[in-house]
Amino acid sequence: MATPVLVRPAEEHARASPGGLTSAEVERRRRAGGKQSPTPPTSRSYAKIVRDNLLTFINAVLFGLAIALIALGRTSDALISVGVVAVNIAVGLVQEIRAKRVLDRIAVLTRPRVTVVRDGLQQMIDPWEVVSGDLLVATAGDQIVADGVVVGNRVADVDESLLTGESDRAPKGNGDRVFAGTFCAGGTLEYVADHIGPESTANKLAASARAFRRVLTPLQHEINRVVRVSLAVVMLFEVLVALANALDRTSLVDSVRMAVVIAGLIPNGLFLAIAVAYAMSAVRIVGRGALVQQANAIESLSHVDVLCLDKTGTLTTNRFTGAQTLPSSGSDAEFRRVLGTYAASSSDSNRTMTALRTAFPEPPLPVEDEILFSSARKWSAVTLAEPAGARHYILGAPDVLKPHLRSGALLPEEAEQWASTGLRVLLLTRAPGQPQSDGDADADASLPYVLEPLGLVALCEELRPDAAQTLAEFAAVGVQLSLLSGDDPQTVAAVARQAGMSCGRLISGCESTQLDADELSETALNGGVFGRLAPDQKEKIISALRARGHYVAMIGDGVNDVPALKAANLAIAMESGTAVSRAVSDIVLLHDNFGSLPFALREGQRIRGGMHAILKLFLTRVLYMAMLIVMTAVVDIGFPFAPRQNALLTLLTVGIPTLALAAWARPMEPRQQSASVFGFVLPAACALAVMGMSVYMGYLLLVPLLHGQSAIEAISSTDLRSVAQTALTTASILCGLLLILFVQPHGESISSWRDMHWKHAALALVLTAGFTIIALVPRLRAMFELQPLTSADFILLALVAMVWAAGLQQLWRWDLLARLLGTSTRVQRVGT
Known about the structure:
The protein has 832 residues and is α+β, with helices and mostly antiparallel strands. The protein folds into 4 domains: 10-210, Calcium-transporting ATPase, cytoplasmic transduction domain A; 288-316 and 465-597, 3-Layer(aba) Sandwich (Rossmann fold), CATH 3.40.50; 321-456, 3-Layer(aba) Sandwich (Calcium-transporting ATPase, cytoplasmic domain N), CATH 3.40.1110; 600-821, Calcium-transporting ATPase, transmembrane domain, CATH 1.20.1110.
């Protein structure tokens, strides 16, 4: 049960007259601040979405870099940098605003209306128009919209599962408390509102959900580390180059150009690439019935190794199904006919009757008298006008009806066996007389002691479609499953077995308080089933699992699940759940569709595979550039690149290719480990640095010497340096395009030409053609500060690139760096 809250002073709700409050009293209480506050926001505000996407660490770095570039006189480069940030922000904003609009539409469609008695008349109003002291009426299916006290002699069953997680209905009568967020499941009750809006139990329990959660995935942490290290290297290089330029009295223009190239070492394109990958996956997954609220949610799912689920309303549909029958006498067909007639004739609308009507469709008979089901009695009764005369039937729990059976009547042993497996077991009996009740006080109805048993019927809770298959797919990839419910542990275990989950130790909420964090996590990992859990106990289990280094996802639907959802690495909510559970979640399962989760898992694996390939290309370029700058500085032969040349190199070797890799990525196998990033990057960057230094020095020194110039004259010649930079840029682009061939769509590296993916080869050819056009067209060539090269130069540089690629294959195959460093960074071939 939810924790009761203190009742307001008597003057706040003392008027519980049949006529309710008067219009004047309502207006007075509204002016006094008693008006119902609007329901909690269904999602974040637009301002908060913009703020969360704009004010991030990397955005601050890149905006600062743009300001620095403007101060250095490179406005065009600053605009390009800000443009990358703007595209990144726009992708995130479009995705999250789209999710907000969908959630808001869901909230409008599911918004309840409430019946209130004012001036002696019943009227329908919005929940936020309720004031303290209002007399409210709830019938079967109505939502309780405020905390209050039941008045009058009516009795009803209330579904409190969204607050407590318990599937059993709680009987409510005069003087009992009801809570906002619960539902009237059967009967009619009147209650006086005393705690409304933020003061209600549901709102207090969900208050923490209003603090937005943003959990970075391991991949995002890795990218942030790469950017931070790159930023530190860039700052160090900038200081060293600035000091060197001051000592050498280098012109301000050349110093600025060097600073721009060094600033380009920050791999800001990584964030655009991952934003595009997230957006493409979100588009794919929405068609499968899942709404992504956090851009990184799909990728986050691929890291999950423990999946925790609520039962009532999450794993189950809150309906019964799979009816089994066992007649005490006569045929099974006749017993089913009587059972179906009973259900069709009854006016009760609880889930038991709904299941019986579905399982045993029969035409109804006229009802002469009826006592509706009550959780206090655990039975209901109907007098049917049958052709042979009126007959009285009672349907209820076997243990309650057993003492009233006629002498000598016994129940089959199956009754206890079915009950022990978590099934809802009911006994249908016939009586010579109608049970007696005192008006509306149905809880006081009495039974005669001559009931004749007709048979047993067993119902099991209905699993959501695809739930069992989905859980099996998660278990197959090594994800541990655990049920955390507020329901009875035996019932939870029965549902777990029905879903194909292995059931270990059964733990109740009281027992869980006696276990420390290690014992809780160990029990959950060993298939433990938790029942009768309070919201804070669910949160404690999630936190214990995370403390042991597990990546935990939680699926829930109720207010009682909110603390656990917020504590998890990944929060998943059902569309039919409460607005607050949807608002705090990272993924919302539209139409409560479990079947979208396996597809989302594969999409997450696709993102990881693509981003590992992208990360390798970016890191290779950054490390290569840094090594080349250091090498040229040590030899003192001038700066290797001009800013526009560096921009062209970045665009063709990492800019366009990374977007293609994100689109072409294939899901990594569940247990497949991606080859070491640095096992790919270090050999490639070192080989590139050697190649680049050789080409630059060859064109800057060797070629001029062949024409009779001295080394000093060659180094000091601006034209020769520009030619050497052009040759270096050309060779670097050709090698960078060849590098694309060695990265598979799922992120694995290859060490053989025959293992290449045809899409990568096609992309490399297209980009090579594009660069050729730039190199041959004078206006385009001038735009990127390139000098004209001869056909012999292009052939020579192409051969250099081919030799470099062959040498790189040998480095990977021989694993030379691993042998030198004493580590194992061998890049595995696909399929080995």
